[in-house]
Design a protein that fits this description.
six-stranded mixed sheet; about 425 residues; FAD/NAD(P)-binding domain; globular; D-Amino Acid Oxidase, Chain A, domain 2; about 30% helix; binds flavin-adenine dinucleotide; alpha/beta; single chain; eight-stranded mixed sheet
Length: about 425
Amino acid sequence: MPAARPSPAGRAPVAPDPDAGGSWWQAGWPSAGYGSLARSTDADVVVVGGGVTGSSAAWHLARAGARVVLVEARELASGASGRNGGFLLAGMAHRPAALAALVGEGRAAELFGLTVEGRERLYEVAAQVGAADCAVRTGSLRLAVDAGEVEDLDREATLLEAAGFAVERLDHASLAPPLRDHFRGGLRFPDDGRSVPAGWVRALGAAAAEAGAIVHECSPIAAIEDDEDGVVVRTRAGVEVRADHVVVATEAWLSGLLPELAGVVLPYRSQVLAAAPPRTDDGVVRRLLPEVSWSRRGWDYAQQAADGTLVVGGEELEDIEHVRSWDETVVDRDQRWLEGWIRRVLEVEPHVVARWAGVLSQTVDGFPLLGPLPGRPRVLACGGWGGAGNVLGFVGGGLVADLARGAEDRIPPELRAARIAEGSSAR
Ligand SMILES: Cc1cc2nc3c(=O)[nH]c(=O)nc-3n(C[C@H](O)[C@H](O)[C@H](O)COP(=O)(O)OP(=O)(O)OC[C@H]3O[C@@H](n4cnc5c(N)ncnc54)[C@H](O)[C@@H]3O)c2cc1C
């Protein structure tokens, strides 16, 4: 039976479909396996959602000595964090020039700087948790398909150069073939990187458990109750965790548990495929993409994994009927478009080994949502990354962990969840 198509303004399902097909990353880097939440318990902080954001929050909290319980509906990195393109980019959904138009150049540079610091910290932590090969500094390449995108890149480079960030301009002639035949120019960010999304996040979750966090998988939370004394989260089976604070890190599913976010946090489903490594006639793997590479303002994104596998994602068109969905289902039309992209741009025949879809979230004002919801000081939202959560989710998990344990509140004002109060721009 076809699933009902949710309205963009509707509320997410309370939890994702446990039977949705998985990604090439999830199959290759399995979860360590954690038991479900079988008995009611208590903690200082309960974290709901075991993607990069929830795992980061749990890791930061456990290392700071807090009693933390992490509860995930499926396995760690089952959602966007185990299905994505594996780009470790500085920046947020509003790219620097757009950000500067909204908050001014100085603030735009500060917000970009926060993600640069976060990316550097991410590399360090990945090495520390034994996942250095899952977060590698390769550089990233943003490519322009038309004159409008060339202008965007120019504005972005001017702003970042003025603020002292590392960025290299590539004119058409300096693009390597075959990219030169398809793109008008590019920007290279030498310190961005490539990740193995499920590998890195599952290693971070395991490190949180080693540091003392209690991790439960296969435990969908169905309700959150809160008052001035604390919070209770309850599974579908009626098992409870009582805590001082809850961190809700369920990204596209935020409004399933937090009804005030319906119409504020919207789902965006994106398609991905993995194709076997392209080889020369002698069987040697051809390295076609030294950097993670993206174009058409993010509608096309591609990386070549360490073994040479091509992981390519995106959509032919931003078709709202298709992308505004919480169903992690494969869409044939877009999958064919991705195969065509490999043929056209990389000039190789794709031998597809896996296809999948993932769902990320977009907020209506394009900024993430961090911290307490209006009138609910113990309920800390953490998400709305808008397709840039690999670094931002790691950073945000740390910022919200600080708040939950009473440390310094460093959440930038533009990202505060409290702005959703009636009349603010997020509505
Ligand atoms: C196809 C695709 C490509 C992308 N490419 C990139 C990229 O290259 N670079 C980048 O920076 N970002 C990218 N993103 C975005 C990035 O993946 C996300 O922003 C990031 O992974 C979000 O992490 P998260 O932990 O907040 O959410 P998620 O990883 O989605 O984790 C949320 C978790 O909550 C769980 N959950 C939901 N409801 C409940 C409940 N009721 N009870 C318990 N658990 C629950 C889910 O099972 C899930 O595991 C991409 C996203 C997609 C979908």
